[in-house]
Every structure is written in structure tokens, then in C-alpha cells.
Design a protein that fits this description.
By secondary structure, the chain is of the alpha/beta class. The protein is built from 18 helices and 21 strands. A 6-stranded mixed sheet has the order 1-5-4-2-3-6, sandwiched between helices. The longest helix has 23 residues.
Length: 566
């Protein structure tokens, strides 16, 4: 998890690790200023120094962004507690040392359309080349799944994607993959972090222009792989409204749909072009309230059958469907619903499907039921695709936060482009039968029981509030939630028989439900993940949904009181 606490970064870190009261912010800032190659952050830092803004200096120099399994992610700006060229160059140098120490020789770099992404990508390529590695950069700003695909396609030993995914516009990030195409996990993160800490003065980091910008062959290879997932004979009659949410997904998605034989989706015009300010949304995350309102409006205008949305780096996919009971006439499917639909589509498409399905502990248990019904393995993992992608024999994996891996042999990570294409194929297939996606969800509820999920998400300004809430719950775990007995309370920091330790709490409820509480790994949020399982009597799915909604509302109310973040 990326944080804003002191961590390894560079030769100055012994000073950075001092508390905010004792750190000599001025001298540290002046030393940083002497190294900083970026005129923008130099100007920011100079202004702080001239103004004597000790609070601003302490905020930037009193701690460091930590390099972890999420790589780096944080606000842009000067100092070790921000994303900037100094931090990126040091991270690249540390990663280069790690790759070379493990016998590697090549790295590929991708980037999105956020502020400084192209600059950070170029810096990374120069450092990799300077270290004697073969360095390749994707031909332009492209989705994260293209980078994940390119690693194994090119046969390199690591990949870097410069992106902050769905974070606010002031953020950027540095996501690291190894040669298997999966994101890093321990102990690689700690080993890379140690290499970063050992990097000397910035001027001593060798850099070279001997790196290569790839041509479009890598994009065409990715598109060939993705469009090969759909059946050439399956129906294509489907009207689609689509938004890339100001990100980099549009061109690749349109090309994929064209190659697959679908009519062009109607793109939300105001969100079609990449925009690092994400000017039409409060947060560029399809899960956030209001984020897909413009896409729904486009769907109404174009009489669409389905809404598809990507997050800004297009590794996630959101789906909305017509709903006569909604005030807008549409509703967004939950990630768990999309996850179950894609799993069902795969098992129906491939009668001899083999391998293992996987989902994270915060995702619905329905996937396990589907896997068992079709003789497939099922594995529960920690949150994050870095864990899902490493499941032995993985055939399909998903996470409730709109991440789906439908083709681990091609992209061993979540991929919002391939997920969108398969959802369109499923919706078109159902349309040809006179049915819709919600009909299939009803079928699953009748077969396996209604698995209904919800979330409680609390954004905070002070991370200490999250620590306090988790400590309170550990000290006094609830005995009931929403009127349902808590039959088992698990502190996931202690690990389980199948899961390594992680900062989270899981409560197993009577009647098959569960609640998981954990801090977000990428944002200042405390999140609660709720699930209830309701039998469907007499095929009355509507009644089961009402019962589930009441149960989830009661659980959410109890959990909000227990968290008491104020």
C-alpha cells in the first residue's frame, strides 16, 4: 500500500525520517532543490522557501512516499512525499538494479494522460538504458492492459506503467510488473525498495538516450489477442454507449469493437478526449456517484442497450443496464454482478473449460458457487490483482472494484477492454434470445441463492482516524450486525489457513453473509464490504431482493455506527 509515512527513498532519507518537529526542512529542501531537474517543482519549492512556509515544507519533506506492492502513488509536487521526477528517477534506478541483480535485461514502459506521465516514462526509459538494460516505451499514451500484455509479448523482465488509475487529478503513480506480467508482491517490493534506498546522488544515476519507442505492432498484437476472445459467430446486434472517463481507453476500445464486428459505440463526447483534469467528474472512478451520468444520458439519447465505462487507464470496466425502477431509467451493475456474469459467459462459451476461478476476500462468494457447479477450482485471495493474477491455474479472476481478468494467458492483470468486449458479446447473445443481463442475474439467484452485496466507504483527511477505527473494532468486535449474529470474527492481520496477513477484519454472519472492513490500498478511505445470501423461494427473485436490500441497509447502518469516524 502506498502511504505518506517515512520510508526508503534516497540518501537524504535519514533526515526525512525525523519527526515533523525536528526535521530540518529548510536544509533538506535546499539540498533537494539542487538536485531537482524539473523547473515546475523547483519553482514550487523555491516559492515555499522564499515564503518561509514551514508547514508546506514539512508536509513535503517530513515523510516519504513508500514503495510497496502498489509501487508508488501520491500527489504531484516537490519533495519525497510527492510524485515528481526526483522520486521517479530514484525509483527507476532502484528497479534497474533489481532487474539486473536477478539476471534481467529488458524493461517496457507505458504511460497514461495524467500530468507528467510522459515525462516520468521518458525518465524511466533513460535510467533503464543508462543501466545497460534494453528499454522500450509504448508508442503513445495507452491503457494499462496494453502494458501488461506487452511485457510477455516482448519477453522482457519487468514493466512500468505510469498511472494513478482512478485517483484524483492531482495524483500520479508508478506501477511495477515483473516478467510474468503480474504486479509485484512481497518480497520483490521490499527488495526493490532497498535498491531505491541505496541509490546515490541523482547526478550519479547514469542515463542514456539509447532506448526505443515501440511502433503500433504491439497495439495490434494486443487487439488481435482481445478480439480473438469473442466468437466470430456470436450475435453483434447491440447499441452501446461508452465513456473512457477522460482517460486513454477510447481509441483502443473503439478499435477492438470494430475488429470484433460491433457497431461503433456512442462515445460520451465531453469525456472522450484524454483530460488530466477530469473536468466533468468529482473523482474519475466509475464507482463514484455521478461519474457515469453523462454516459447514461448518452444511452438515453442513442437508445442504447448497455452502457460501458472504463476508468482513466482502462484496466477497469463498469456496466449499466436499463432499469424501469430507477429514476434515470438505468442502474449501474455492481462489480460482483459483472463478475458473476462474465464467469457464467465463460463457462457457457467453453463447455470444456478447465482451471481455477479466483476472487478477492471482498468479492462475492457467488463465484465459488459458479465454479463448483461447473467442476472448476476456486481460490480466495487478498485484495488486489497482484494476488489474483498469481493463482495457480488461473482461468478467470475478478475483484468487486470493477476489475476482471478474462484472459490470463494474454493479460495477467485486470483488463477493462477485454471485459467490455465480452460483456458486449454476452449482452448481444441475450438480446438475440429476447433477454437482458438482469434476466441472467435472476437465473443465477434462483440456482445459487441471491448473493447481494453493498459497500460502506468513508473518505477521510486524517489517516489516523482509520487507524483508530480499526483499533476500536479489534478491541471490541461487534456481536451482531443488522440483526444477524456474528458467528466468527477474524483479524486478518493474523493471517488464515489460506491467506497471508493483511490489515483487515472479517465477520462471518448467520445465514451465510459476511462483512470485511479494511483500509483502501490506494486512497484515504476506510471501506466495508457487505454480503448477504438470501434463498429464492418459489422463484420470486424480486422478494428475495427486497429482503436482501433491507438486510444490507441494516448492516450498513450498524457498521457506520461501529466505525464512528465522525
Amino acid at each position: 500500500m502506498t502511504g505518506r509515512t517515512a520510508g526508503p527513498g534516497n540518501d537524504h532519507d535519514h533526515e526525512h525520517r525525523s519527526s515533523a518537529d525536528t526535521v530540518d526542512a529548510v536544509s533538506v529542501a535546499e539540498a533537494w532543490l539542487a538536485e531537482d531537474p524539473d523547473p515546475d517543482t523547483r519553482a514550487e519549492l523555491q516559492a515555499l522557501l522564499e515564503a518561509g512556509d514551514m508547514a508546506g515544507l514539512t508536509d513535503r519533506f517530513g515523510a516519504s512516499l513508500e514503495f510497496g506492492t502498489a509501487g508508488l502513488r501520491g500527489a504531484l509536487g516537490a519533495g519525497p512525499n510527492r510524485m515528481n521526477r526526483v522520486v521517479v528517477i530514484r525509483a527507476a534506478a532502484g528497479l534497474a538494479s533489481y532487474v539486473k541483480a536477478h539476471g534481467g535485461s529488458g524493461v517496457v514502459v507505458g504511460y497514461d494522460a495524467r500530468h507528467k506521465s510522459d515525462v516520468f516514462a521518458r525518465d524511466t526509459a533513460e535510467v533503464m538504458a543508462g543501466a545497460g538494460l534494453r528499454a522500450f516505451v509504448l508508442p503513445r499514451r495507452l491503457p494499462t492492459p496494453v502494458l501488461a500484455f506487452a511485457i510477455r509479448h516482448l519477453g522482457v523482465d519487468a514493466g512500468v506503467m505510469v498511472t494513478a488509475s482512478h485517483n484524483p487529478p492531482q495524483d500520479n503513480g508508478y506501477k511495477v510488473y515483473l516478467g510474468d506480467g503480474s504486479q509485484i508482491v512481497p518480497p520483490a517490493d521490499a527488495e526493490i525498495s532497498a535498491e531505491i534506498a541505496a541509490v546515490g546522488p541523482l547526478a550519479a544515476v547514469p542515463r542514456s538516450d539509447d532506448w526505443q519507442t515501440l511502433d503500433d505492432d504491439v497495439v495490434h498484437a494486443y487487439l488481435d489477442r482481445v478480439t480473438g476472445l469473442v466468437d466470430p459467430a456470436s450475435p453483434r446486434d447491440l447499441r452501446i454507449a461508452y465513456t473512457p472517463l477522460h482517460g486513454v481507453g477510447r481509441d483502443v476500445v473503439l478499435a477492438a469493437f470494430q475488429r470484433a464486428g460491433f457497431d461503433p459505440p456512442a462515445v460520451v463526447e465531453r469525456q472522450g478526449d484524454p483530460d488530466p483534469e477530469f473536468s466533468t467528474v468529482a473523482f474519475p472512478n466509475p464507482e463514484e456517484p455521478g461519474a457515469i451520468d453523462l454516459a447514461v444520458a448518452a444511452a438515453v439519447e442513442h437508445q442504447a442497450d448497455i452502457v460501458l465505462a472504463n476508468d482513466p487507464d482502462a484496466d477497469r470496466c463498469a456496466v449499466a443496464v436499463p432499469d424501469p425502477h430507477s429514476t434515470t431509467g438505468w442502474r449501474m451493475l455492481r462489480g460482483d454482478e459483472v463478475g458473476a456474469l462474465l464467469a457464467t459467459h465463460l463457462v457457457r462459451r467453453y463447455p470444456d473449460l478447465s482451471g481455477t476461478f479466483a476472487a478477492s476476500i471482498v468479492s462475492s462468494s457467488l463465484l465459488g458457487r459458479i465454479a463448483a457447479a461447473h467442476g472448476l477450482g476456486y481460490v480466495e485471495t487478498l485484495t488486489g490483482f497482484k494476488w489474483i493474477s498469481r493463482v495457480d491455474g488461473l482461468r478467470y479472476g475478478y475483484e468487486e472494484a470493477l476489475g476482471y481478468c478474462v484472459d490470463p494467458a494474454g493479460v495477467r492483470d485486470k483488463d477493462g477492454v477485454s471485459a467490455a468486449l465480452l460483456m458486449a458479446e454476452l449482452a448481444a447473445t441475450l438480446k438475440a434470445e429476447g433477454r437482458v443481463l438482469t434476466d441472467l442475474l435472476d437465473d443465477l439467484a434462483r440456482e445459487h441463492g441471491l448473493h447481494a452485496t453493498d459497500q460502506l466507504s468513508v473518505r477521510v483527511d486524517d489517516l489516523a482516524l482509520i487507524e483508530d477505527a480499526m483499533a476500536r473494532l479489534r478491541a471490541e468486535p461487534p456481536t451482531t450486525l443488522g440483526g444477524r449474529a456474528v458467528e466468527q470474527a477474524e483479524d486478518l492481520l493474523e493471517g488464515t489457513d489460506t491467506l497471508p496477513p493483511t490489515d483487515g477484519l472479517r465477520y462471518r454472519l448467520a445465514d451465510g453473509g459476511r462483512v470485511v472492513v479494511r483500509p483502501s490500498g490506494t486512497e484515504p478511505k476506510l471501506k466495508g464490504y457487505l454480503e448477504v445470501v438470501v434463498p429464492v423461494a418459489d422463484s420470486d427473485v424480486a422478494a428475495a431482493r427486497r429482503t436482501a436490500a433491507e438486510a444490507l441497509a441494516a448492516i450498513k447502518d450498524n457498521l457506520a455506527t461501529a466505525l464512528a469516524l465522525g
